[in-house]
Amino acid sequence: MTSMQQLRDQMADQDPEYRRLLEEHHKRAQRLEELARKGWLTTEEEQEEKRLKKEKLQLKDQMEARARSHGA
Question: pTM of the full predicted structure?
Answer without folding.
Answer: 0.85
